[in-house]
Amino acid sequence: MSTASHSAPEPAIVIDNLTKVYKTRDGAGKLALDHVSFDVPRGQIFGLLGPNGAGKSTLINILSGMVKKTGGTARIWGFDIDANPRNAKNSIGIVPQEIVFDPFFTPFETLENQAGFYGVPKARRNSAALLRAVHLEDKANAYARTLSGGMKRRLLVAKAMVHAPPILVLDEPTAGVDIQLRQQLWAYVKQLNDQGVTIVLTTHYLEEAEQLCDRIAIINHGRLIADKPTRELVGMATEKVVQVTVDRDLVEAPMHPRFEKVELTGGRVLSITYAKDKANAGDVLSAVQSMGLQIVDVVTRDPDLEDVFLNLTAAAA
Ligand SMILES: Nc1ncnc2c1ncn2[C@@H]1O[C@H](COP(=O)(O)OP(=O)(O)OP(=O)(O)O)[C@@H](O)[C@H]1O
């Protein structure tokens, strides 16, 4: 019995105390996920970020059933991955990090085979429309091995959607994909999201995550260190940077109590980091002038996700 129909639907994904220890030869074990808990709200584009080896793929592979968790629980679209693995699996489409295809099937056959694997009846298959959506209609009957890297990746996205899951997970989908194809891929992902598909993606491109994601979770060394709406996360930056060009060549960057950090990035260009709560750009410029330097040019840069990411991951290291 369930009262779910009377209350708000549960989040697309609920992860609770998820833990993974890989077996290692020395017997010590590798803790890849350490009691990670977070929810992915329905209808969002959710970014899962973290440095190399943080545990992102492990988490996604647990959701897809490829890696066995050591502890904790995960629910996908209301289905517990242990109690209801079939429904959990049917609710999610995964675009893996590694490109794996049978090279002798054509893109059309690849999609048909995958649909068959998920038990999608012939009448409800839409392989041709999926190929069109990822701009591969003219490659429908080519061997998969003849596709470029970017084409293969787009085919993987189509393959993940054959059973029309409510959730699409993309693990580093744009690694090695050129900028134009990246934009096409994101346009398609956004289109799916507009149609109601919840998106989870891992990426190393922070700028991309900042532009695309409604919410971002950051994992570092297997631990969750942030989980916030993107705007709030970017707002957590405590430092700002101002680039000042002065009127003469310097040999060394002059430090000042108002500065958190100063670097000489060109003969006459100083990159000055200051704490937002202790100083403002005016204070910083006065400090430069007080050292007998004339200011020729000033460029300020707003903090972005990269600043926050570096701060958080450095603090948690
Ligand atoms: N099969 C395995 N056996 C032992 N250790 C593993 C195994 N798979 C992953 N690890 C380790 O677990 C940690 C997390 O790896 P994971 O691949 O989940 O990280 P990631 O965040 O996805 O990194 P990347 O961005 O580089 O893909 C790493 O230290 C990795 O070396």
Automatic annotation (TrEMBL):
Alphabetical list of InterPro entries matching this protein: AAA+_ATPase, ABC_transporter-like_ATP-bd, ABC_transporter-like_CS, ABC_transporter_ATP-binding, P-loop_NTPase
Q: Give a yes or no for keyword Nucleotide-binding in this entry.
A: yes
A Pfam family found in this protein is ABC_tran
Task: Tell me where in this chain the ABC transporter domain is found.
Answer: 13-246
Molecular function, one GO term: ATP binding
Keyword annotations:
ATP-binding, Nucleotide-binding, Transport
Report the PANTHER family cross-referenced here.
ABC TRANSPORTER ATP-BINDING PROTEIN, ABC-TYPE MULTIDRUG TRANSPORT SYSTEM, ATPASE COMPONENT
Q: What is this protein called?
A: ABC transporter ATP-binding protein
